[in-house]
Write a structure and sequence with these properties.
Elements: H1 2-16, H2 21-24, H3 30-37, H4 46-49, H5 53-64, H6 66-76, H7 84-90, H8 102-113, H9 117-120, E1 121-124, E2 130-131, E3 135-142, E4 147-153, H10 157-178, H11 182-185, H12 187-200, H13 204-217, E5 224-225, E6 238-242, E7 247-248, H14 252-257, H15 262-280, E8 283-284, E9 292-294, E10 304-306, E11 312-313, H16 317-331, H17 335-344, H18 354-365, H19 378-391, H20 398-417, H21 423-438, H22 441-450, H23 452-458, H24 462-484, H25 495-526, H26 533-551
Parallel strand pairs: 5-10
Antiparallel strand pairs: 1-3, 2-3, 3-4, 4-6, 7-9, 8-11, 9-10
Helix pairs in contact: 5-6, 5-7, 6-7, 6-12, 10-12, 15-20, 15-21, 16-17, 17-18, 18-19, 19-20, 22-25, 24-25, 25-26
């Protein structure tokens, strides 16, 4: 019954904000058209119907509650799917809800830690520091005097999310059927992405683990500080973390009052982003202003402080490479390279014509260069590339969307702190160092060694593969001879047998060289044992076979 009542509530809110118009445009939704047309709310909401479409969508999500607000925040990052007006409006959604009673927070803490709050803490603040849809945060003091913050999941939030998400899947399936653009928008995929995101935030042990990884990555950093986790007081529903004292990143006047170097602060933000993405491949994907503070110490060498690690991004090696090379190719205005990278990465179908994709990339990217480099947004560059690739049936990966969202946040923050920030000048050295490091011979050898087991597994079968290949070729020649007359030898007199021997020598030589390379690379990477002399003999035998094969051509 609760699900039916919730569905009725959703229908009421949709009609109140005139969102049924999205369905009334579609002739396939006849039954839903009648339901909405007969709703009394339709005749009671004339003022809200005069508002822009994007505003009505935002207000509807806010009225449906925190779970739908979270969905709107996820949707705001999918600029590859949404019109610009809706995407911009959804960024205004704030994840702030009424706090739940401190008595309930105490009960949740005692249930999770199996001890009274008075035993765990010397002092516990009943008034929360912050309250959001999934959890709220209280200040506390441990018995050793350490100041901490206690993050507590909202009571019953798991059941609420389970109910609302199941309804979202139902609505997504309906939208795919009745909306004019339903299939392209892939609503079920969007809900699944939201489902993963919000469930990740329901496990505070996972969030604590993310915090520890980031803290270790920036252990000796003077640009970013990650508060320490108290593991003995952390469970799935409760997390205890070091309390930090910093200036909220929005409070520019407070930073200017202590003489903060705003240019350096802005540049540090960009450096932190590139370090996380291209060196650590583990990035904080929720870097909005509410999660960022600045230390009051050393204002001339400012240090960021980050909190809230529920959403973390990571790229595959291939996606990391394609993102880095795409950005470099874009700033070199090598649009063919950008198009080829999109195809090679599998972001667009393999049968896409490079010239057509290149023309599309050029059409949207070339106008960007009308601006000075210092005014170009790398986040907008990625967004434009997504828009182009969407026309070629691009499958957008969630991690790439997280990356683009994070980059937009960092850029917006950086230019708010220092309007003349040149993002390209700040980021280019990181990209160039990353390319050099990636092409370092030792790194290439390590990558080669990582793939060695799979290659070595095939090597014993190589002679039979060569035999089968040659046999197949001979059968083809005999069939051709039977169809067109006797096979004629080449002027050199070797015919098919000579060609077969050439092929055998060439493949055998290649296999021997490959084996020698695999074996020697293992010794090179270990750096402790000298490469055995017999591996050199294997390599020489491979070279000899190749030379014999070439002479027989």
């Amino acid at each position: 019954m609760g699900r039916i009542a919730r569905f009725a509530r959703i229908e009421h809110v949709m009609v109140k904000y005139a969102l049924e118009e999205l369905l009334l445009q579609n002739t396939q939704a006849q039954l839903l058209r009648h339901v909405f047309l007969l709703s009394p709310t339709r005749w009671m909401s004339r003022e809200t119907r005069a508002l822009p479409r994007s505003t009505r969508i935002r207000l509807a999500l806010e009225e449906l509650g925190p779970v739908f607000v979270k969905l709107g925040q996820v949707l705001s990052t999918r600029r590859d799917l949404l019109p610009d007006d809706i995407g911009d409006e959804l960024t205004l959604l704030q994840d702030k809800v009424k706090p739940f009673a401190s008595e309930l927070a105490r009960e949740e803490i005692e249930r999770a830690l199996s001890q009274p709050v008075s035993v765990i803490f010397r002092q516990f603040e009943d008034i929360p520091i912050a309250s959001a849809s999934v959890a709220q945060v209280h200040g506390a003091v441990l018995h050793d005097g350490s100041e901490v913050v206690v993050k507590v999941l909202r009571p019953g939030i798991r059941d609420t999310i389970r109910r609302d998400v199941s309804l979202m899947y139902l609505l997504a399936d309906m939208a795919a059927l009745v909306l004019q653009d339903g299939r392209r928008l892939r609503p079920r995929e969007v809900v699944a992405e939201y489902d993963r995101t919000i469930h990740a935030e329901l496990d505070l042990v996972a969030e604590a683990t993310n915090a520890v990884v980031l803290r270790n990555n920036f252990k000796d950093s003077k640009t970013l500080y990650i508060p320490e986790i108290h593991w003995d007081l952390t469970r799935s529903a409760v997390m205890v973390q070091e309390r930090i004292s910093g200036i909220p990143i929005r409070d520019i006047k407070a930073m200017e009052a202590i003489g903060m170097d705003m240019r350096r602060l802005a540049e540090h933000g960009v450096e932190i982003f590139y370090t996380q993405v291209f060196e650590h491949n583990f990035f904080h994907a929720d870097m909005h202003p509410g999660n960022i503070f600045v230390s009051r110490e050393h204002p001339k060498h400012p240090q960021y402080i980050a909190v809230d690690f529920g959403i973390i991004g990571s790229l595959t090696d291939e996606d990391q490479r394609y993102i880095g090379e795409n950005l470099l190719a874009f700033f070199q205005r090598d649009y063919r390279r950008v198009a080829q990278l999109h195809i090679d990465s599998g972001w667009v179908p393999r049968d896409t014509r490079v010239s057509e994709l290149e023309a599309g990339v050029r059409a949207v990217c070339e106008p960007i260069f009308e601006k000075p480099l210092s005014e170009i947004s790398l986040g907008d560059v990625l967004l434009q590339l997504f828009h182009v690739a969407r026309r070629f049936e691009m499958e957008v990966q969630p991690q790439l969307v997280l990356l683009q969202k994070t980059l937009l946040n960092i850029e917006g923050l950086g230019r708010q702190l220092y309007p003349d920030l040149d993002l390209w000048a700040t980021g280019k050295p990181f990209l160039q160092r990353w390319v050099v490091k990636r092409n370092n011979p030792r790194i290439l050898i390590r990558r080669f060694v990582d793939q060695a087991p799979a290659i070595l597994e095939v090597l014993p079968e190589l002679p039979m593969m060569v035999h089968d290949f040659v046999a197949q070729k001979n059968r083809s020649l005999r069939q051709e001879s039977a169809a067109h007359g006797p096979y004629r030898q080449s002027p050199g007199g070797r015919g098919s047998n000579g060609s077969d021997r050439t092929l055998r020598y060439s493949i055998t030589g290649g296999a021997l060289l490959l084996s020698a390379a695999l074996l020697s690379s293992a010794y090179i990477v270990s750096e402790t044992v000298r490469t055995p002399w017999w591996i050199l003999l294997v390599a020489l035998a491979g070279i000899a076979c190749l030379l014999v094969g070439l002479r027989r051509r």
